[in-house]
Amino acid sequence: MILPGAKIIQIAWVVDHLETAAEKISRSMQCGPFLMLRHIQLDDPHHRGRPQRTDFSLCLAQAGDVQMELVEQHDDTPSVYRDAFPDGPPGGMAFHHVAVIVPDVFAETQRYNDLGFQTASSGRFGSIDFTYVDTRTAGGFMVEVLPDVPEMHAFFGKVRRAADEWDGKAPWREFA
User: Fold this and answer.
1) Would you say 173 and 33 are in contact if contact means Cβ atoms under 8 Å apart?
2) What does the alpha-carbon distance between residue 99 and residue 147 come to, in Å, rounded to a whole number?
3) Model's pTM, two decimal places?
4) How far, in Å, CA of 24 to CA of 173, rounded?
5) How far apart are CA 30 and CA 78, in angstroms?
6) pLDDT value at position 1?
7) What is the largest CA-CA distance in the chain?
8) Beta pairing, strands 7-15 & 66-73
């Protein structure tokens, strides 16, 4: 369920092991390198309207115009990842969400809410506000709503540059 005017910029999977999944996707799709961000600390994290910290790591790679994200949750706390896969991803890897970039995260989230889709998660990564909207009943996946701001483009620009400079060898590395 993608609302008109939103641009899909990312496809994401929940995985049980980042390095293994990054190697698998890198080999099969010839994309990389995946840039690892470990044990991310969000500001003001909420799950289903309640404060909730989740221990998770992720990695990002660019594949043409679409970014690939892999997410590994390290604990059993309630989260958007456990909402979809309470016992972890079946087979070690499962499609979870797409991300859209929009002018106003909160207005876009409200548009989803007005259609009956709940905000599953929200928080801030540095100065970047985000939400996850639970659209699984309409499309089988969630939607992450991200802001169209310079900080977001700078962050994702690092992922794109890494892909442009990639020699095709190491499928992943730490995010510098």
Assistant:
1) yes
2) 10
3) 0.95
4) 14
5) 34
6) 65
7) 46
8) parallel
